[in-house]
Amino acid sequence: MPELLSPDELAAALADLPGWTGDSAELTRTFQAPDFPTAIRLVVAVAADAEMMDHHPDMDIRWRTVRFVVSTHSAGGVTGSDTELARRIDAHAAALGAS
After folding, report:
1. Domain residue spans in the chain?
2. What is the mean pLDDT of residues 51-66?
3. What is the pTM of this model?
4. What CATH fold (topology level) applies to the domain 7-96?
5. 97 CB contacts (<8 Å, ≥6 apart)?
6. Distance CA 19, CA 99 (A)
């Protein structure tokens, strides 16, 4: 099972993940896609990575707004798996023009 990030590790991770907020329980970021189909493409791209990682975020879609929440429920908070998934989410969002 992945280990929880220490407070210092969490602070460093958040400094390296612009736009993400959170605490020891979860990390959160909201993106604005250019349009609804792009928002759906973002969710599909993240779903493919999440399935490959066996690490699934909470996702909320409201028209072109997509909110992601990542946490390692089995560990009870934020782990390195969450920061890795956050980086992948950022890469997909950038590739699709979501900000």
Report:
1. 7-96
2. 97
3. 0.96
4. Gyrase A; domain 2 (3.30.1360)
5. 33, 34, 38
6. 9
